[in-house]
């Protein structure tokens, strides 16, 4: 049976995969493509995670797509509204017929002779093979099947329930319960005020404080512009304003870390009760933006603390006890429920086993080209967004460059593109980010180089030139045509003398 062939195979139907499919459909309407989704629904993160209060920590005017205005009043949005936005994108662009659920890509082998990928796909009841000229991997960079939970001594001794946000039970009810949330990242600061609405009390138990920044959930200027201007114009202006604002805040924090620290501390102290030990619980030992800052819309975390519904304990955990969690200070934090908001496990390329002409690809030995391709791996694109601003800003630019690259290859009659890195080029970890979930996984990630195009840029302004308006090709990107190579091989074979007939 002949394998199905596609021009582009997109892996993942989350925010990156949906965006890639839309760009491809609009800019290359004649190309065949499919979006393979291992789960049974679109939306990726926003469909998978079901814990209370789940929301964005970026404004939707930049976290949303450039081509689709965000129409809600709240710019810091809940998961259900983000999911509705994503699924509206699917419907409006006729992408339903391209998406295939319960299709998990297991392995892919690039054939140089054929100029395409041979992709093994698990459909649950059977395994099928699809061939594709390109793979666009839009599966993000963390594992969807499990979160990260460190070992806690005495876990089996705890008499209550232990939950991880990535596997939240639908029937959980916090009413009247004492809840301990272990962690201090974006998930923890989201969970605490959401659970505090019904729980008897919620304690955020953190080993190390995180920078927490209260911001309005509504963008007043954006909502005003929508009343005064056409929707697309208002959205474009708001998006430009917020991109600049994000960049300004990040650069200020990096250039003047002590001043940024003081400003954040001032905002925290203003939002917290009189006499609250701000320096104990909201004064990280690192500089702002060494790790991602947590945003709390309308200061909801601080309001829960002011109301006495939530509290913070900063200490290391010694063990779980039947009654709760014991800290190194000798305190037992009482709990009926413990939530381990302890982070994620990262994985690159959806754990697809990649090979080139039968030789396995060691991803940690590759270098990322233009933040998208892996050195030495032909026709393979990887979508990783920004860590210091909205994820989707980078994804949109990567999709634009990918479409420009396809057009360039069509114009030049080539079907194979691969990036070649100098083996003596110095490299460093892919992400310059201090978050624990990143640090745990650096050894498994690709590398980045010292300068463009091998630098994993985190600057939207720089990426505009590199990905949207700059030259598509450079000396590091090589092109060839399998069709011409096959013709050359055929010509060489025809020129060879025929083997003598038997008995001659």
From TrEMBL:
Keyword Methyltransferase tagged: no
GO terms of molecular function: flavin adenine dinucleotide binding; N,N-dimethylaniline monooxygenase activity; NADP binding
Keyword hit for Transferase: no
Cofactor(s) the protein needs: FAD
Domain of life: Bacteria
Keywords: FAD, Flavoprotein, Monooxygenase, NADP, Oxidoreductase
Region named Disordered: 481-504
Pfam families, sorted: FMO-like, NAD_binding_8
UniProt family annotation: Belongs to the FAD-binding monooxygenase family.
Protein name: FAD-containing monooxygenase EthA
């Amino acid at each position: 049976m002949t394998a199905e062939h596609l021009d582009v195979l997109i892996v993942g139907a989350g925010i990156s995969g949906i965006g890639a499919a839309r760009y491809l459909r609009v800019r290359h309407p004649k190309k065949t493509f499919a979006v393979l989704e291992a789960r049974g629904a679109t939306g990726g993160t926003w469909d998978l995670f079901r814990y209370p209060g789940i929301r964005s920590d970026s404004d939707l005017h930049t976290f949303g797509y450039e081509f689709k205005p965000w129409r809600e009043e709240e710019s810091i949005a809940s998961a259900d509204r983000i999911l509705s936005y994503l699924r509206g994108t699917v419907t409006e662009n006729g992408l339903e017929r391209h998406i295939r659920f319960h299709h998990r890509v297991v392995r892919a082998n690039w054939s140089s002779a054929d100029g395409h990928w041979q992709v093994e796909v698990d459909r649950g009841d059977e395994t099928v093979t699809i061939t594709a000229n390109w793979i666009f991997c839009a599966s993000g960079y963390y594992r969807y099947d499990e979160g990260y939970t460190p070992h806690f001594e005495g876990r089996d001794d705890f008499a209550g329930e232990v939950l991880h946000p990535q596997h939240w039970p639908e029937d959980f009810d916090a009413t009247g319960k004492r809840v301990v949330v272990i962690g201090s990242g974006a998930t923890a600061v989201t969970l605490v005020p959401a659970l505090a609405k019904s729980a008897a009390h919620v304690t955020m138990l953190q080993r190390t404080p995180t920078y927490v920044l209260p911001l309005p959930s509504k963008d007043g200027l954006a909502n005003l512009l929508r009343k005064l201007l056409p929707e697309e114009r208002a959205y474009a202006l708001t998006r430009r304003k917020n991109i600049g604002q994000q960049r300004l805040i990040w650069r200020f924090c990096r250039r003047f870390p002590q001043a940024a620290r003081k400003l954040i501390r001032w905002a925290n102290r203003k939002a917290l009760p009189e006499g609250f030990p701000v320096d104990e619980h909201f004064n990280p030992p690192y500089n702002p933006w060494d790790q991602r800052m947590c945003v709390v819309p309308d200061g909801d975390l601080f309001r829960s603390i002011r109301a006495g519904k939530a509290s913070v304990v900063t200490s290391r955990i010694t063990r779980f006890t039947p009654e709760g969690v014991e800290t190194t200070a000798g305190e037992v934090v009482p709990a009926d429920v413990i939530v381990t908001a302890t982070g994620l496990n990262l994985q690159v390329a959806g754990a697809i086993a990649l090979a080139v002409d039968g030789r396995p690809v060691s991803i940690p030995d590759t270098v990322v080209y233009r933040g998208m391709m892996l050195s030495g791996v032909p026709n393979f694109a990887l979508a990783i967004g920004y860590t210091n601003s909205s994820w989707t800003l980078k994804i949109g630019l990567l999709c634009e460059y990918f479409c420009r690259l396809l057009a360039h290859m069509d114009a030049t009659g080539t079907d194979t593109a691969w990036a070649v890195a100098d083996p003596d080029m110095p490299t460093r970890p892919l992400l310059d980010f201090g978050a624990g979930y990143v640090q745990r996984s650096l050894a498994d990630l690709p590398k980045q180089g010292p300068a463009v195009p091998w630098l994993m840029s985190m600057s939207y302004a720089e990426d505009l030139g590199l990905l949207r308006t700059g030259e598509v090709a450079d000396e590091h990107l090589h092109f060839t045509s399998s069709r011409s190579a096959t013709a050359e091989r055929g010509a060489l074979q025809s020129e060879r003398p025929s083997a003598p007939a038997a008995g001659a």
